[in-house]
Structures are given as C-alpha cells and as structure tokens.
Recover the amino acids of this structure.
C-alpha cells in the first residue's frame, strides 16, 4: 500500500495513496484491502486485519437428486445439490497454514460424513476435488470498514461465509465511501478493534467454536 510510510523529511499523519501490484504503482485516493487470508500479509495491514488461513476441502460427485432438493447437513458433513446431476460435499476446518492442497484423510472424512447422510453416494463417481483457504480472524468476525489511515479501507475476514456476506460487505463499503454511511450496522466489524488492543490468540477449539456459531 502506497503512502503509509511518511515521505523522507516529512512526518505526521499518513494515508493510503494507492497500491503496488505486480511491480506496478497504481495511484488512488481510496484503497480497499480485500485479499482474503492474505490481507494480513500485506506490509502494514496486520494491525488492521490480522487474518490467518483456515483450509477447507471439498469434493464434487455425480449424483442425481430431485429438483429443488435442499442442502442437507449433519454434524460431520453437508451436501449441496448442483445442476446436471452434480452434488458438492464438504467441508473441513484445518489449521494447515497456507498449504492449499487436498489430503487423503480430508477426503475420507468428507465422504464418510456424506455417505452417512445419503448412503448411495458411496457408489457415486468423483468429479472433482479441491481445497481453499478461508480468511479467519482472532475473534472469527469479519473486518469491514475504515482504518485510522486516511483512504484505507478493509473488507476481509469472512471465514466460512464469504459468498453469503459478499453482497452486504460490498453495500457497506460502497455506502461508507460514497455516502459516508453504511446501510447496515457494521460497528462490531471495525478494523480499529485490532489496532486499539492486542488481539488474543485463538483458543485450541477456536475453529470448532466458530463453526458452532
């Protein structure tokens, strides 16, 4: 992020003036950090968005379910119907750093959980397997809003709910930047909650507790 470090011979408040991306300087009066679990890795951002990765694994199976079938859940797994006879099963919560890869153990646990819900999935062809990194935070809440650095905004830390919360996050950030007010209450998600106090480390059961919530 450009502008966060005072220029030589200058002091006082600093603000975002753009970004460096792919070696190119892109100047802008407003900068929004929305880099998922990598947000906290950007120099100067950890004080506002101390994100960490939580790996999830998924598997897609060829299986026909009736049209309009709901998402099925258990304590061990969930199954999401898709189009053209495809269902997606997941997911795992793993502290594996930035290792974005599938594992035999992860796949086995997902399939075991899925077949407990629908036993016939045990014979379903596997179409695809993949892993992703969720952006977690010390308190498992998103980080959305302005920072103390002028022109610097954060939108990250959505953990398992990025797709669900993306429209609301976009509306909140756009409202704040364009009109000075968010249409939804994001008070508890302020980046300043981390800058103002030392963030405590997640408990050993942090991901389990977050999942339960």
């Amino acid at each position: 992020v450009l502008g966060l470090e005072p220029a030589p011979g200058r002091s006082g408040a600093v603000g975002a003036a753009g970004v460096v991306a792919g070696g190119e300087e892109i100047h802008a009066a407003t900068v929004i950090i929305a880099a998922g679990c990598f947000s906290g890795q950007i120099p100067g951002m950890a004080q506002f968005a101390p994100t960490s990765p939580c790996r999830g694994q998924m598997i897609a199976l060829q299986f026909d379910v009736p049209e309009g079938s709901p998402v099925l859940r258990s304590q061990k797994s969930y199954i999401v119907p898709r189009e053209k006879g495809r269902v997606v099963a997941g997911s795992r919560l793993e502290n594996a750093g930035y290792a974005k890869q599938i594992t035999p153990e992860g796949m086995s646990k997902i399939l075991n959980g899925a077949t407990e819900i629908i036993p016939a999935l045990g014979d379903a062809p596997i179409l695809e397997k993949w892993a992703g990194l969720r952006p977690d935070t010390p308190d498992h809440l998103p980080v959305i809003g302005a920072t103390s650095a002028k022109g610097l905004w954060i939108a990250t830390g959505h953990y398992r709910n990025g797709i669900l919360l993306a429209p609301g996050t976009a509306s909140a950030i756009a409202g704040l930047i364009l009109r000075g007010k968010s249409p939804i209450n994001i008070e508890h998600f302020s980046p300043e909650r981390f800058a103002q106090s030392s963030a405590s480390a997640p408990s050993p059961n942090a991901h389990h507790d977050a999942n339960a919530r």
